[in-house]
Amino acid sequence: MRRLLRLSFLFLCAILIMALFLVACAAPAVPSKTKEASLTVTTTSSTPVFEKTTVVPLTRTPILPDTGKVLAPGVMDIDQQAHRLYLADKTAEGVDVFDITTKQAVFITTILTGSAPSGVAVAKKVNKLYASLANHTIVIIDINPSSAKFNSIIATVTAGGASKSAEMDYDPVDNKLYVANSDALVTVIDGATDKMIKQFTGLGPSLVQSRYNAKDGFMYMCSGAQNLLFQFDPKTDVLVKKMDIIDDAEPHGLAINPKTNVGLLGNTTSPLHLTFWDFSSQKVKSTSEVAGGADMVAYDLVADLYFAACATDSGPVMAIFNGSDEKFITCVPTATGAKKVAYDETNGMVYTVDNTNAALVGFPWPYQK
What we know:
Blueprint: H1 2-26, E1 33-36, E2 39-42, E3 59-62, E4 73-79, E5 84-89, E6 94-99, E7 106-112, E8 117-123, E9 128-133, E10 137-142, E11 153-158, E12 165-171, E13 176-181, E14 186-190, E15 196-200, E16 207-212, E17 219-223, E18 228-233, E19 238-244, E20 253-257, E21 262-266, E22 274-278, E23 283-288, E24 294-300, E25 305-312, E26 315-322, E27 328-333, E28 342-344, E29 349-354, E30 359-364
Antiparallel strand pairs: 1-2, 3-30, 4-5, 5-6, 6-7, 8-9, 9-10, 10-11, 12-13, 13-14, 14-15, 16-17, 17-18, 18-19, 20-21, 21-22, 22-23, 24-25, 25-26, 26-27, 28-29, 29-30
């Protein structure tokens, strides 16, 4: 009798298990992931959910003077109104000019500078392009298409020092250019007269990117080796403050969002990470470990995005963050040596470089708002 009851109990259990299995098979499937506009998005949400990496097609425009050579690029900058991209080209010892009227960039010419340039900066207010050179000088190029000296060097400023003139930025309010020399010098140039009006000395080594902050009207500059940020007042050309970053960043790049008063540092240290700096509180706001080994970083006001050209263990990527809250969006795999960046506001194109193949590389920002 006990054996009969035990068999009955086992039979009932088997029936129950079978019933549960049939119910589970009939239940709605978990939403699958589908590719949409080159992004991975869950089908149940109206808001795109970005994964860590987004692969998009890359366009390439050969830099003709450097064909067959390894490109040694400096900084790039864009004249958004004229649809021109300028790249400091150390290999050709000049500034490469590209037409970016459409999504496919077209190489136009190289403006020879006589020495390898590290930085370029567009000053649209005065229709000039500045290029900082390895021979400690800054050349001023006329970019007014109606000028008889269009795309020609119209002035030269000697900064001096023992090292190259490096990155720089233009202050359109005070019409001044702040240029970093790698060996402790910062040179200030008047945009109207093309003359040096101030020079700061004794600032220490590894002075790199300067950036104007439209929010507070100050010019900022970073020093990688010193792990410092310098604050200058361009109205009076006074060094206001040196700020210790504290976080082990050693930045080579700097980008500032004037709406939030927060900047992105292009860190070069290991372990790889990126740092967001709050200029209001003058301290680190947050860090991100999604990428690192950055050189040039950029913020674009129209797109409201940060871009960081990074080298990672798995290869070069462009790390992209929201401007409003510094939240990570995605990483786009790029090309060998792609550590420069500029954003074309008209066509929504992100630009960088391919060092091995000496080309300008572009890709569409994969999630247009």
